[in-house]
Amino acid sequence: MSASLQHLVAMILYMAAIIIIGVYYARRANKNSESYFLGGRSLGPWVAAFSAEASDMSGWLLMGLPGLAYWTGLADAGWTAIGLAVGTYFNWLIVSKRLRRFSGKLDAFTIPDFFSKRFGENKKILLTIASLVILIFFSVYAAQCLSACGKLFANLFDMDYTVMMIVAAVFVLLYTFLGGFLAESASDFMQAIVMICALVAILVISTVNAGGVQEVIANAKSYDGYLSFFRSATPSTEEVNVFGDGVKYGFLSICSCLAWGLGYFGMPQVLLRFMGIRSEGELTRSRRVAMIWVVISMAAAILIGVVGRSVLGISYLSNAAAENIFIDVATTFLPPLLAGLVCAGILATSISSSDSYLLISASAVAQNIYRGIIKKNATEKQVMWVSRITLVVIAVIAIIIAWDSNSTIFGITSFAWAGFGAAFGPLMLFSLFWKRTTYPAAIAGMISGGVMVFFWKLVINPLGGVWSIYCLLPAFIVSCIVIVVVSLCTKRSADMEEKFEELKA
């Protein structure tokens, strides 16, 4: 049996397991829209933790992050990982319990629905804006996942990237149609285990084949700035493993990377796990499980990139090409069948994330816009049909965005992450912790955060220098300032503040 065929067999076995999970949960998921979109708030602490992190990390954990570490060393990848780890911790610590409590009392099972009910709106303006934010940025996010799948299959089977990306999109669509949130969360639990095992396995294998830890360190030290958190390496794009002088990694660059942690407060795929857990009391255990998984996974991913510089036969001349390092190490040094199973980790990350993104987008349109605004007396069957049509439309848009195989997974992720972090993050924190927040401030804060991401990315970042800071940070700050200023300048609502105290109790 050829190596490619063994890779394919391993992938088929893995996908079959995913489909079985979808079929198993299909009846429960399709009972009603709440079961489909939030699983009836029945997640256990381990499933909530693993599925939150698996759906969050996506293809960039196994491809984007190792590729970034391989290309420029520890600074960029390391500070980004630190920011994400800190953001993960504080999101589980301060947001999870209160969001579970508030959303349960408000009977809200989507993020737009939560914002709408929290501020007691009648005209559904906030709900509509939040739904549009989800559609825009999850289309970008889903594109990143499909890009990872396309690169994986193109690399393994020497097939056309675009064709493989479309095949991956069809598979994810069919799977999401079947089982909804419960199937997604259950499969994400399994995929989180696959991901961390695959990362650790590839790290060990690549280190052994590089000649051991001492050899890896010695080689990395030979590149100026490669192992420093305050200098960044500058690799040649014409000669393999040739570097120029390292450049200073300044305070603003560090702030840009740490700002990734702010994004967690606005990530719908993570926030929904807080809302869907069985009870508020189980969130403490979930937080501990999530933190252990995140730290081990990101550390392993970064070290794979660093070790890759010392592995003979593994070399790249661009950051985009370097994102294949996980796949190349697996296929070079593992038996074909085992390599296929390990590479299923990339499939795991992409599926676990893309099904989350598609499902949340579908809920935004079907539950929030269609039933919430267009047809308030819509039946459950009609809502489910609208959600499935939405899934197809978002998948098509994602395919168009991911069409260019030279775009980096890390770059696509960073823009979508900034969008959610700035549009939803500040408002989520203020809606949960400041009762003085007013309805006009909520609308203004969400719009200003989302718009500032586009403005900073497209207009300010190209100026370079200090203006090249990650767009999430200034957009997050602007949104916070707008919420505070508008709240203080608009009339406070005694009813809304009384409702806040009831929710908090």
Notes on the protein architecture:
The chain has 505 residues and is mainly α. It has 21 helices and two strands. It has one domain (3-414): Sodium/glucose cotransporter, CATH 1.20.1730.10. Mean pLDDT is 83; it is low at 35-39. The longest helix is centred in the middle third of the chain and has 49 residues, at 161-209. It has helices at 3-29, 33-38, 45-57, 64-72, 74-106, 111-118, 125-157, 161-209, 213-221, 251-258, 268-276, 283-308, 319-322, 325-333, 336-374, 380-401, 409-423, 425-433, 439-460, 472-489, 494-504; strands at 231-232, 247-248. The chain starts with a helix and ends with a helix.
What is the CATH level 1 assignment?
Answer: Mainly Alpha
| Helical/strand content category | mainly alpha
Helices, by number, come to 21
Low-pLDDT residue intervals, each spanning 5 or more residues = 35-39
Taken as a percent bin, the fraction of beta residues is under 5%
According to CATH, the fold-level topology is Sodium/glucose cotransporter
Average pLDDT number: 83
What is the share of helical residues? over 70%
Radius of gyration over alpha carbons?
22 Å
